[in-house]
Every structure is written in structure tokens, then in C-alpha cells.
Write a structure and sequence with these properties.
Elements lengths: L3 E8 L9 E8 L4 E5 L6 H8 L7 E6 L2 E2 L8 E3 L11 H5 L1 H6 L4 H14 L15 H13 L5 E5 L7 H18 L2 E6 L2 H7 L2 E5 L7 E5 L14 H19 L1
Parallel strand pairs: 3-8, 3-9, 6-7, 7-8
Antiparallel strand pairs: 1-2, 1-4, 4-5, 9-10
Length: 253
């Protein structure tokens, strides 16, 4: 069974005369890692808003694990571009939010799961710190841990590393790949960075036109585990130039 299915989905924002997504159909297999690549403003984030139930399609249907999306529950974990940690809550209290919403565990069990999740992302001992006491990379790891605590096998990550400095960003990319291979989650990762898409993806889903009528799937010819040295392989350099050309074509339209 597919983890995610779009079936002739169309969507537009209020006041717009045309759809931003137009009769889009695609499928995502379990355990895969796809980057959705496209220029800024092409509608990538709109796809995540519909999957998570924050927006409803005008036409068509979206299914997660064979069931229509419902806008509530834990069928997906959604991490937007900013870490969205509440400054008035401790790091541990921020991570406990999805557990509080689920109302399945007591305070003691919540604390145990939060501390385990923080240790998993290299933030053991940070539960009682405030978000402003953490570096940018640490905040992103905390936000990722909170996303994992939704319990979902489908994770939606919307440019989570775009605001980080270069060295922190590549470190977080390597860390995320290690987490994905360890947990076997299904990940959709939005980016407009071609190199990031190539390094992370099993295949890239390219937005070629707006409105989005199709996502062109392009396999990345690198096995896992992979290193940044693999980005210098001739076939990867050629693919990078092909993807850049596709983005340039969209900007020119």
C-alpha cells in the first residue's frame, strides 16, 4: 500500500483566479525519501498544507495509508521552515506537545519519552533549557524530535535547514539521513537547493510548472550510505546541471 496518494487534486487560495495545484496525481511508497524541488513560490508548501489537513483541496482526494486525510490525528508529522518552539515553554515542554494532544500518557511517561527523544537527537540533558539557550542547529534537532513524537511514519519537512549556516546545514543533512535509515520513516522534504535534494533523496520530485499539474520523478543514482564526496561524481554533476536547467526554465516562464 502507498503511504501517500494524490488523486486528481486541485487547490487555489481565496481571491486567486487560477489554481496553484491543478489535477495533480502522484504516489509515495513506504520508507522512501523524496525531496520536492522547485523555485520559491511555486506551490511546494501548499502540498504539505493539504496533506496535513491545514488546507482542503477544491477537487480530488488525498489518502494516507489508504485513508482520506482528516486534518487531525497522527497520520503525519509536519515540520515547517521555522522550528516553531514556544519561547515560554522549556525544550522538554515543547517536545511534549504532541503527547499532550494525544492524551494517552501521564506526565511521567511523557517525560520519559521526551528525554529519550532528546537523547536520540544528541540533546540529552536539554529538557529543562529554554529554546533561546540552544543554537540554531540544536533547535532544529529539537523540532525534529518533536515531529518524531507524533508517532507518524510519514514526515513532512519544509525547508527545515534553510536558515542555518553552511556548516551546520550540511551537518544536519548528514544527521537526518542517519535518522531516516535508522527509523525507516517515509520522508518528504521541500527544498529549492539542488545539491541538498541530490544528497538527501532516493529520488527527486521536481515541480516544473505552476500551477502544479505533475511532479517529475528523477532517481538519484547514489546508494546509501552516501557521503558528500559522492556529489563530485560525474553523473551527479550532470544531474545537478540538468536540475538547475529545469529550475531556470521555470523562472523564465
Amino acid at each position: 500500500m502507498n503511504v501517500l496518494t494524490f488523486d486528481h487534486v486541485s487547490c487555489r487560495y481565496p481571491g486567486q483566479g487560477t489554481d496553484i495545484v491543478d489535477r495533480l496525481s502522484f504516489e509515495v511508497k513506504p520508507g522512501s525519501f523524496h525531496c520536492i524541488l522547485g523555485v520559491s513560490g511555486c506551490g511546494k508548501s501548499t502540498l504539505f498544507r493539504m496533506i496535513s489537513g491545514l488546507m482542503s483541496p477544491e477537487k480530488g482526494s488525498i489518502y494516507v495509508n489508504g485513508k482520506p486525510v482528516c486534518g487531525h490525528g497522527s497520520y503525519c508529522g509536519y515540520m515547517p521552515q521555522k522550528d516553531m518552539l514556544f519561547p515560554w515553554r522549556s525544550v522538554g515542554e515543547n517536545l511534549a506537545l504532541p503527547l499532550e494532544i494525544q492524551r494517552k500518557l501521564g506526565k511521567k511517561e511523557q517525560r520519559q519519552q521526551v528525554e529519550a527523544a532528546l537523547a536520540e537527537v544528541g540533546l540529552a540533558g536539554c529538557a529543562d533549557k529554554r529554546p533561546d539557550e540552544l543554537s540554531g542547529g540544536m533547535r532544529q534537532r529539537a523540532a525534529f524530535a518533536r515531529t518524531m513524537l507524533t508517532g507518524s511514519d510519514l514526515l513532512l519537512l519544509d525547508e527545515p535547514f534553510s536558515a542555518l549556516d553552511f556548516l551546520t546545514r550540511i551537518s544536519m543533512q548528514e544527521w537526518l539521513l542517519a535518522q531516516w535509515r535508522k527509523t525507516d520513516k517515509t520522508i518528504l522534504f521541500i527544498t529549492h537547493d539542488v545539491e541538498e535534494a541530490l544528497f538527501l533523496s532516493s529520488s527527486v520530485l521536481v515541480v516544473e510548472h505552476t500551477p502544479i499539474r505533475a511532479l517529475r520523478e528523477i532517481p538519484v543514482p547514489m546508494d546509501f550510505p552516501r557521503s558528500r564526496k559522492d556529489l563530485a561524481r560525474p553523473e551527479i554533476i550532470d544531474l545537478r546541471e540538468e536540475l538547475i536547467g529545469m529550475l531556470r526554465k521555470q523562472v523564465a516562464e
